[in-house]
Amino acid sequence: MQRFIVIRFIHCVVALLIFSMVVFGLIRLGGDPALRFMSSDSTQEEYQYIKKQLGLDRPLYVQYGIFLTDVIKGDFGTSIFTKRHVMDSIKEMLPNSLRLIAASALIAFLVAIPLGVMAAVRKGTFVDVLARVIAGLGQSFPSFWIGLMMIQVFAVKLGLLPTSGMGSWRHYVMPATCLAIFLIPGPIRLLRSSMLEALDSEYITLARIKGVSERLVVWKHALRNSLLPVISFSAMYIAMLVTGAIVIETVFAWSGMGRLAYRAIVSQDFPVIQGVVMITAVIVIGANFFVDILYCYLDPRIRLKA
Amino acid sequence: MIPPIKNLSPLRSWIQFKTGPLRGFPIIPGFIIFLFVFTAFFGEILAPYSATELNLPDKFIPPFFQANGSMSHPLGTDMLGRDILSRIIVGAAPSLIVALTVVILGGVGGSALGIISGYYGGKVDVVLMRAADATLSFPIILVAMLLAVTLGPSIRNVILAISIIIWARYARVVRGEVLSVRERDFVALAKVAGASGPRIMFRHIFPNVMHTILVMITLQVGFIIVLEATLSFLGAGIPPPTPVWGSLIAEGKMYIAGEWWISFFPGLSLALVVLSFNMLGDWLREVLDPKLRQV
Amino acid sequence: MNLLEVKDLRTHFFTRWGTVKAVDGVTFSLKERETLGIVGESGCGKSMTCLSLMRLVPEPAGRIVGGQILLRGEDLLKKTEKEMRRIRGAKLSMILQDPMTSLNPVFTIGDQIKEAITIHRGLKGRSLWERAVEVLKMVRISSPEQRLRNWPHQLSGGMRQRVVGAISLSCEPGLLIADEPTTSLDATIQVQILHLLRTLQEESGLALIFVTHDLGIVARMCNRVAVMYAGKIVEMAEVRDLFNHPAHPYTQGLMRAIPRIDKKVGRLTSIAGEPPRLHQVPPGCAFASRCSSVRDYCRPDQYPPRFEVGRDHWISCWKYAKG
Fold first, then answer.
1. Are residue A165 and residue A293 in the same domain, yes or no?
2. How far is C279 from chain B (nearest CA, A)?
3. Do C242 and C225 touch, CB atoms closer than 8 A?
4. pLDDT of A127-149, one tens digit each?
5. Residues A125 and A158 in one domain
């Protein structure tokens, strides 16, 4: 198990390094990198200063070295737009994003797991159809549009919830629900099909032969097995959560990383984008690392091999 | 052997053909898709008004069923007086172009890599699948945003970014199928007969995974369209003045309290088209998969 | 009174293509400590009969539609699901065919054995553990304390089957149904498992229903045999009688098909044709289309009733109709 953790950790570091190289390369591709850090009122002196900072007069690998050290230090420069240190903005906005993601993930779990299980157990009935309809619609309707429509209906027309921003628990309702709607379809479908497979297997029959109650057969014996594929897909779900969060934050003016990124795109604020992208990469890869470890722990067949 | 039990038909497929090989074909979704493709081709001619010309005196006209609306602008106009319906019609083409190109680049490319990976196994397989996993588990929207800022938003960048996301899915799924096809007898026979790797892959393996690829394509088109719309919504997709649906929704964002139709109708079109593709894909999967299992 | 009396058991499946009569009027009885063999081809209804006895027919597709299952006089078909759960594992139990998939991969052997014991005996803690070790010893597994901590994938097929046996017998049921327990095992392991079953039977006075398609095992293990075809029992006899005087044409066909080591046989005989699709079973004798002894008196519209052809030996065949 130890060895597995170490190997996986090395994979993560390698992945981050490769990604940083990709980012580095992209920056260089788009023309003079120094210009990226300039705004319309920068002076010639500032330009020269930046060039030196980036090491543009030195060989490429030195430039990459400078880039990498900056990233590790957390120094992404100053936002062209707000003139603040990028890292400061990130430190302020990141927790908000995490809160939104946590709330959505919670809602998603609470909805997807029971629905997925019941859809399999009561295959062909109303619950099953409902689950599949929700999955189908959730996958088809763009989350940002649903978000806007929700604002129209619940905030503007009905006045039940605030239109945007943060503040009270009420502000969480629509954004978290929207993001959850985006996330739910995948796990519902996967859980349903794994449950169907599990319920058909011999060990479930054996459990029934033993006299285990149907409730335990479903929720203990079958579910424990069916959750494994869902967990192994978590990497993809985490990516979806992050993607979705960026979009939802834009719709609901949620002061998180997504909003930061959006404003940066609109104003071509390169340092901010660079910072957001790198920090998000670290978080996502880190999260995947933990999920991998979790999966390895939960599946005895893998745990022993490791 | 006991034949399977009759399934209650899901609510989703509306009117269907009852019998024959096209049994269960979802007619309404099929029609919507046809409409979408047709509009993409003939958009410029169909649109009653220009999609891009400003017309400030006519701004904020509501859709025809509301007060002050009229049939001359059935879906209303936006903040610059442009006819929403026309913008939606003209915006269909770019979405379709992106989707098709991504399917070819990412889908076909990814499938080819999947076949190679599954067939040869070994180091090639490990490397390719690691790359695929890395791509799948990373929110590429970030890379798309980076591209948008460094290289500037353009239709080319969108296609590139989405293809990078898509290829991994195809590669993974196709590789899985190849792993089981590879073990079948006719492949061994071909090898014994002296067929080379590429020949086997093309003549024997590919036809047997074709149905999987086809189903994936139909199911993925919807996803690609939404992804493109999302990027456009964020400003990292196809740039103005092209009236892509994602951008239309973004434009209407700040008017959502009052002039809600600016975002609503583009989004509705998007939702309907994607839903139709998904339902078509579901039907295709039902038709192709069980049939092939019987063989 | 007999340990088990099954009377006219019917289990049907309701499918898009018609009603599949998987078990169609099965009647037999079983005494204490007796071993009854059920033989037949794949799809003849043997497994479904077993599942019906346990009332584990997969719903909603399938349902027991008629008959009686009297376990020590009590009709199992009249029990509620809750009552059945107390009976399953404790009064009657079953072992399944494929040991590789019979055990839940995410729970340890110990957990799975202990679960059965906890449900029916209510033991906890130390005494639960001790009982689990005892049960493993009963099925002759070495280092049982160690094994309790193992996971299923760490055990071989033969060991897994023993564990399944341990689980099923942990609460000392009076009746064990074994559905082709050795079919997926190697020949040498097969012998071990059969031997184990025999020993357990002697030690605990277990009655055994042994389902198989292997007549060799039947000869070795069973006191009485029922031959099934297309959902019905076509012949039932004591084992010696069945082998020496097979009366039903189907049984005769099966016997003829066994390769013999003592005689030189030019060509192995098989039974021509195929069993009928179970949703299209003809009303008359289901075997008629393949039977070499078919005659005019084999009425196509009525199923042949039972006829006694010897002591405790009956068949369903028109050949033996008197008058």
1. yes
2. 9
3. yes
4. 998 998 898 888 888 888 999 88
5. yes
A49 and A168 inside one domain? no
- The three-point CA angle A300-A302-A305 to 5° equals 110
Does A144 contact B230 at a Cβ distance shorter than 8 Å?
yes
Give the count of domains, chain A.
2
Q: What is the pTM of this model?
A: 0.84
Q: Over the range B95-134, which residues count as b (16 or more CB within 10 Å of their CB) and which as e?
A: bbebbbbbbebbbebbbbbbbbbbbeeeeebeebbebbbb
Tokens of A154: 């619940």
C114 CB within 8 Å of a chain A CB? no
The residues in A 106-145 lying below 8 A from B, measured between CB atoms, are 124-125, 129, 132-133, 136-137, 139-142, 144-145
Note the pLDDT tens digit of each residue in C226-250: 999 888 888 899 999 888 888 888 8
Tell me if B6 and C15 make a contact (CB, 8 A cut-off).
Answer: yes
In a domain, A21, yes or no: yes
Amino acid in the structure at residue C90: A
Residues of B in contact with C13 (CB under 8 A): 2, 5
Class of domain B5-13+24-294: mainly alpha
Both A125 and A185 in one domain: the answer is yes
Number of domains in chain C: 1
Residues of C with CB under 8 A from a CB of B: 13-17, 20, 22, 43, 60-61, 278-279
Q: Are residues A109 and A38 in the same domain?
A: no
Quote ipTM for the complex: 0.86
Considering only CB atoms, A140 lies closest to which of B137, B148, B222, namely B222
Which amino acid is residue C191, in one-letter code?
A: V
A24: containing domain = 2-73
